Amino acid sequence: MIQLHNVEKSYGSGAGQTWVLRRINLEIRAGEFVSIMGPSGAGKSTLLHILGMHDSAWAGEFNFLGEPIHKMSRKQVLELQKKNIGFVFQSYHLLDDLTVYENLEVPLSYRDYKKSDRQAIVSDILDRFQIVAKKDLYPNQLSGGQQQLVGVARAVVASPKLILADEPTGNLHSDQGREIMELFKKLNGEGTTIIQVTHSETNATYGHRIIKLRDGWVVE
Predict the structure, then answer these.
(1) DSSP assignment, residue 205?
(2) What is the DSSP letter of 159?
(3) How far is CA 199 from the centre of its chain?
(4) The predicted structure's pLDDT at residue 17
(5) Which residues lie closer than 8 Å to 182 by C-beta, 6 or more apart?
(6) Number of C-beta neighbours around residue 118 at 10 A
(7) Among 21, 48, 119, 157, which residue has the fewest nearby CB atoms (within 10 Å)?
(8) What are the φ and ψ backbone dihedral angles of 171, each rounded to 5 degrees?
(9) Under a CB-based contact definition with an 8 Å cutoff, are residues 204 and 37 in contact?
(10) Domains of the chain
(11) Tens-digit pLDDT profile for residues 185-195
(12) Quick check: helix, strand or coil at residue 186?
C-alpha cells in the first residue's frame, strides 16, 4: 500500500538546515495496523502528515496504492487523499458550526454520492457508533470522549482504505481511550489499514508492529 524511499524533510535555519526526517525507508502493507512511537520531537507527526498528504514539502519517493505521489500534481494528490484516507486527530478537528450529522456528511461530499445515499450511509454510521441521539448536537455540546467518537466515525464514514490517527486517545480518560482502541482493532479486523502515532505502550499493543523514530531517523 505504502512505500517510502529516502524520504527526508528539513527546514532552513540561518546558514544551515534543521533536519526533521532523515532517509526514511518504509513499507506498509494493506491490512496492517502500525504504531509510530518515539520521544517528542522525533518526527512522528511530521511523518504522519507526509503519509496523509497534508505536507508536500519533502524530498524522496512516496508510492501510495501504486501511484507515485512524488511525481503527481497537488490536485491529483488531494483527489487520491480524499478518496482513500481518513484522519483522526488528538484535538478532534470537528467543524464547530456543523451538527454531528453534518460533520459526518462532509467526507461523503468529496465523493459522487446521491443525497439519498449520503443519508443512508450517515444513518448507518450513527447507529453503528451508537450516537443517533447526538446527531443534532454541535461539537461544543459533547464531552471529549463523544467528540473523539464522532471524529473516528467521520474518519470511517466513507470507507477509506487507510486511517491515520495522531495520538487518538491523548485527551481521553482510560475507559474512553480503550473504547476508541477497541474500535480501531475492529475496523482493522474488517480490512482497514491503520497507522497511529502514540506515546502509549498499551495502545501500541493493539497493532501488528511498531516503527520507532529518534531524531528523525527510523531506529527500529
Answers:
(1) T
(2) -
(3) 16
(4) 85
(5) none
(6) 18
(7) 119
(8) -105, 10
(9) yes
(10) 31-40+74-218 (3.40.50.300)
(11) 998 999 999 99
(12) helix
pLDDT of residue 206: 94
Closest CA to 19 of 38, 47, 39: 47
The number of beta carbons lying within 10 Å of the beta carbon of residue 68 is 11
Give the DSSP letter of residue 153: H
∠ CA(90), CA(74), CA(92), 5° rounding? 10
Kind and range of the H or E run holding 118: helix 115-128
Task: Measure the CA–CA gap between 187 and 156, rounded to whole angstroms.
Answer: 9
Q: Yes or no: say if 195 and 47 are a contact pair by the CB < 8 Å rule.
A: no
Classify residue 170 as left (phi > 0), alpha (psi -120 to 50) or beta.
alpha
Q: Which residue has the higher pLDDT, 112 or 82?
A: 82
The closest of 187, 190, 195, 194 to 213, measured between CA atoms, is 195
For residue 127 the three cell numbers come to: 447507529
**Following CA atoms 151, 155, 159, 162 in sequence, which dihedral angle do they give, to the nearest 10 degrees?**
-140
